Amino acid sequence: MKNRYLVVLTILFILTFTTVISADQIKLQNGQSFRGEIRNSSIKIRTSYAEISIQSRFLKNIKKEAGNFVFSLSENNRFSGELLDEITIALDSSQSSYSSAEIEAVNFSNTSSFKDNKAVNITTTNGDFFFANTVEDSISIKTSLGSPLNIKYSNISSIEYLNNENIYLINRKNASEIKANFSQQSLILWPSAGEIFELNLNYLQKLVVN
Predict the structure, then answer these.
(1) Which of 183, 186, 173, 74 is nearest to 131 (CA)?
(2) In terms of domain of life, where is this protein from (predicted)?
(3) How far apart are CA 145 and CA 147, in angstroms?
């Protein structure tokens, strides 16, 4: 009987300990910390190039760094900027919401991997990195003849902005590289982690076609 009682206590301890370890966590700037379940299905961030609603299921953590919030996601995806949404956490018998002015960090216990929208890798000028699909199937660049030239993404390996030359280096598949500027102003992207947005090309550092 005593052994049976000890087994039950051990199981209860393991279940309780596992629940605590696997719970989401919010750390506040005043030093308080709470564990529970984050209730936001998505969390909006204002980056230097767009406002994006990030799906919470892909998030690993959110941390305040040098005045900005850094969203770390699955597979090294990263967004940084201003946290726009309050974050709500469900505790044992209640739930509470906290604003960006109160939050120091948020840790998510479960993170899903990306399955869709991974046609390209995007690196922006502020150091953000994310997977996305391009809505258009080609880019348009300026030529010496004055007329634009369209190049399909299927013929491109990568595009990288050369800071010292103020021009883009376009590496093509089975063809020579090209240095050129875009004749268009932006790219329409659908990131793996969120909703479609328009990226002004002034913020594009590198694009790699997968």
Answers:
(1) 74
(2) Bacteria
(3) 6
C-alpha to C-alpha distance for 206 and 179, rounded to whole angstroms: 14
- pTM for this structure? 0.87
**Is residue 8, in this structure, part of any structural domain at all?**
no
Is 3 domain-assigned?
no
Tokens of 84: 């726009």
92 and 134 co-located in one domain = no
Instruction: Point out the domain boundary residue: 76, 107, 138.
Output: 107
Q: What is the pLDDT of residues 63-100, one digit of tens each?
A: 999 999 999 999 999 999 999 999 999 998 899 999 99
The radius of gyration computed from the CA coordinates of the chain, to the nearest angstrom, equals: 22
Whether residue 113 lies inside any domain: the answer is no
Domain that includes residue 78, residue range: 24-107
Residue 58 located in a structural domain: yes
d(CA 24, CA 40): 12
